[in-house]
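Q: I have 194 residues here and want to know how they pack in 3D. Can you give me a structure?
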Amino acid sequence: MKKGGFIKFIRSFIGEYEWKRRNTILIILSLIISYAILTSQYTHNLILSLGDYGYLGSFIIGLFYTYSLTTIPATAGFFLLGESLSPLLLALFGALGSLLGDYIIYRFVKDNFTKEMEEFSPGVRKIIKGIKNSRHLRKFMPLIAGFIFASPLPDELGAALLGIMKFQFKKFLLYSYFFNFLGILIIATVAKLL
């Protein structure tokens, strides 16, 4: 192979592949980078230290509450804040941060990622088609997604379920805010009672 031929080959491969699987590549890269960053003790301490900023800190912790790799330290942050702040106000501001995080996930999943996953695997295509075509699942899917939003489970799954269903954007925002509010309120109230 000529000098520079290998580089041209790599560029042409990445360029062609990028258009077909660009969002899949970005998710995999972001997961690798996020894992490296978020598994450090420094990051956990940073999330917990956001509590020093009161209700503004709860908004920022809310952003972390939605993503799988930061759900646990964010839950701990809400618990610690719940000991000293009003659980109601904490949930109001924290849910706003979670709403912003869920919005980012929803826009990404709804528009492109689902299509890529359908192309990537026939099994995934069948699951997505089954969800879209099942009347019973469609009735319960918003409730299942709401439970995921309210729980310390990562919101990516709930947003993906609603994205697959092409859930109305305004309804998605209401579901995300209400159920994240409910989950954070429960965490903060338990902390206050203990």
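Q: Anything worth noting?
A: The chain has nine helices and no strands. The mean pLDDT is 77.
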